[in-house]
Amino acid sequence: MSVIKVAILGFGTVGEGVYRTIHSHAEELKTVLGKKVEVAAILIRNQEKQRNISGDVLVTSDFEDILKLPQLDIVVEAIVGKESPHLFLKKSIERGCHIITANKEMFAHHGAELQKLAEENGVSVGFEATVAGGIPVIQTIRHLLKVNRVHQLQGILNGTSNFILTEMREKKQSFAEALLQAQQNGFAEADPTNDVEGFDAFYKTMILSRIAFGDEPNWEDVERQGITAITRELIEAAETYGLRFKHVAQINIKEGELKAVVKPVLVNQDHPFYHVEGVQNAVNVRSDIVGGITLQGPGAGMFPTASAIIEDLVFVCQNKLADVPKTTGFVSDDKTLQGEQEYWFVQGVTEKLPKELTVVDQSVAGFCILKAAKKDLIWLANKEEVLCFPILGEIKLIKEETLDSVAVS
Questions:
Q1: Which of 41, 53, 101, 184 is most exposed by smallest CB count within 10 Å?
Q2: How far apart are CA 235 and CA 192, in angstroms?
Q3: Please, are residues 108 and 203 in contact by the beta-carbon 8 Å criterion?
Q4: Do 192 and 282 form a contact (C-beta atoms < 8 A)?
Q5: Catalytic site residue 82?
Q6: What pLDDT shows up at residue 318?
Q7: Of residues 204, 246, 259, 371, which has the active-site annotation?
Q8: What is the pLDDT averaged over residues 232-241?
Q9: Is 111 within 8 Å of 104 (Cβ atoms)?
Q10: How high is the pLDDT of residue 81?
Q11: What is the edge-to-edge ordering of all strands in the sheet holding 223-224?
Q12: Are residues 400 and 349 in the same domain?
């Protein structure tokens, strides 16, 4: 067979980007694969809308028309929703097609099932585009897992939230003003809930967990917190200490169990996420041999996402059925469960604190930095008027010249 036939489900930003990239990089694909890649069909919703699609491509709103094609090798899914894409991809696998998806919500819910079905049918699943846009994080983790044991993943996984936090800090905007700017720039939907409340990052976190650890935590146990509580006042106070707010997802193993959290944290200029700005995404992987590595790049957009899909196209054509790692039983290097104290940025403390909570700095009115074990901070964090944010990495308290640099987890 000298031609690879591809169907694209959806012709929005991502679908069109894939179509255009297959045409613009036809020679590169032929060189790598030894075969010509052709788009045979495109699934669309509105037949009346004018699109710049070649006349020899089947354009249809009925997925069954695509399944009836005499040759179909790969199905690329780039549509909105959860259940319909799931059904389309199941049918594609049963037809004997490799599948590639950019749909993180669908894949977080149904990815394990699709991968199992693909294995049974001898085809491959590509899903690099479901996490961090154009950053090849999934392929990188797969390579690491050949020998390295991953201890922890941290990521800025949602470009919209990162853009809003950047705008609030750089332009002194309120959350509402920065959100409006994100919507006007096309970075946020009219209903931005999935982005600003952390659902998008949550789905991506579950996908990463399955890749890195072969399993995922109980969804109900994952602490998910968005960025809507972050104010300009908080951001300006954090800047006084040389800290920046970032919306970070983290997965690690604690006492043999997978734990995950998606929430705002603070980092200083020594942390790899400090300079990750705008719609950029980043993922930091910590493992036992290589140590820590950070991948950074565009988290969304037509061509960054198309890049991930095209690389997956090469991956699945080579029929690389990736082994899913098993959850490891090693003891994590995370020490917080043993009661090791962390540093916290806190707003709204108006009463005397118990001895378990050490005030490290209180030079900015209305704010303080505390040192405490998380278990001792829970009663304070439950107070409605108090906001508590963990500080990651290392911190130098510039307000106290006599204090040495302290390392925190």
A1: 184
A2: 21
A3: yes
A4: no
A5: no
A6: 81
A7: 204
A8: 94
A9: no
A10: 86
A11: 223-224, 257-268, 243-254, 150-156, 280-287, 291-298
A12: yes
Reply yes or no on whether the pLDDT at 43 is more than 80.
yes
SS3 labels along 268-309 = ECCCCCCCCCCCEEEEEEEECCCEEEEEEEECCCHHHHHHHH
Confidence band, pLDDT 50/70/90 cuts, at residue 106 = very high
Q: What is the pLDDT of residue 406?
A: 39
Instruction: Quote the CA–CA distance of 247 and 230 in Å, as a whole number.
Output: 10
Three-state DSSP class for 160?
Answer: helix
Amino acid at position 178, single letter: A
Indicate whether 254 and 293 sit together in one domain: yes
Q: Which domain holds residue 83?
A: 3-126
- Report yes or no on 28 lying in a domain: yes
| Whether residues 154 and 241 fall in one domain | yes
Residue 226 included in any domain: yes
Question: Do both 374 and 288 map to the same domain?
Answer: no
> Which of 78, 67, 74, 65 lies closest to 10 in space, CA to CA?
78
Tell whether 99 is covered by a domain: yes
> Could you tell me if residue 225 is left (phi over 0), alpha (psi between -120 and 50 degrees) or otherwise beta?
beta
Decide which of 390 and 356 is more confident.
Answer: 390
Q: What is the pLDDT of residue 244?
A: 96
Confidence class for position 384, pLDDT limits 50, 70, 90: low
Residue-level length of the chain: 409
CA distance 256 to 355: 31
Beta bridge partners of 75: 7, 99
